[in-house]
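Hi there,

I know you've been waiting on this one. I reran it after we fixed the sequence typo, so this is the corrected version. Both the input and the resulting structure follow.
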Amino acid sequence: MMEALTHISKLAQNCSQKNPVIVIGSGASIPFGLPSMKPVADYLVSTVKPQSPDEEDSWLLIKTALANGDHLEQALLAHPLVPSLIHQVVRATWELIAKHDRDVFTDAIHNEFHPPLSRLFDHFLNTSNSTVDVVTTNYDRVIEYACDVAGIHYASAFQPSYITTFDSQDKRTLTYRGKPVQTVKIWKVHGSLDWFVRSDGVTIRSPLFTEIPSALEPLIVTPGVSKYERLTDEPFRSTLQGADKALSNANGYICFGFGFRDRQIEPKMVERLARKGVPIVVATKVLTEEAAYFLRHKARANFLALEESPTGTRARYSENWDGVELPDDYWSIEGFLKLTTG
């Protein structure tokens, strides 16, 4: 057991020492009360109200697919929504996630939010690294709150102020008196709860809304065929280009709660893994079929997978896919830090 733990710890430390890009999926937000895809799907079924026969037919296909066991992404990919329904789906998704996101914010205000993400970012910045790149598919602001409570600078596509407009130029490296400030650079490839587009087409960021003003449309990309169309528009296009650059230049990847169901993120990782053999660590409560396939057939040579098991953690790596059982929660962010910092 100790020999296996030592080997696994070395794999984790090797990846961590390369200033890896951190990829964060919905599984990293769920512990703080943010909903997984299943509650989102349930909420959509109960909230979306078709207004025409075409919408009725379209929505019935989605509800049937979900009832038959498809996850939300599968259902919306197999049965593209009529355009008039997409508006409802986007707004209902925003409403549900924003409600839980505000609960996290309230906890942070009352000093009741102490995420391991804060310690993770501090760990990576407590070196010679001036920046840490974080690529996420999440709309929520758990990453931003984690930086705030730790006193860590973060930057996205907007300048840090209450009323801001989108700037397609990469301003994520902050400076003070001409010197770089240690910064978490956040690439939210599917948008954010505080991104909106005005009726005049201008993209703005405002963190203050508890409901969606009638004159604004949320800029979040929901699952389904339509998301690939939206990703060609700003601010998604520039954000995805920046994420692609970070992923393409990475010397390693650490993925938390990421299910590998997103076609925007994986290609750059595959290319880097194949050409450079950079290490990748996947830590998650449940290793999805897509994640398992990615590791076995695309990462191949230099990976470590950590997932929850009845004894604590099952660790799989390139020399041993069946894996070994470890008696601790190394699959969590907090547990991962035990592997890398002792």
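Quick highlight: The CA atoms of residues 29 and 309 lie 20 Å apart.

Best,
R. S.
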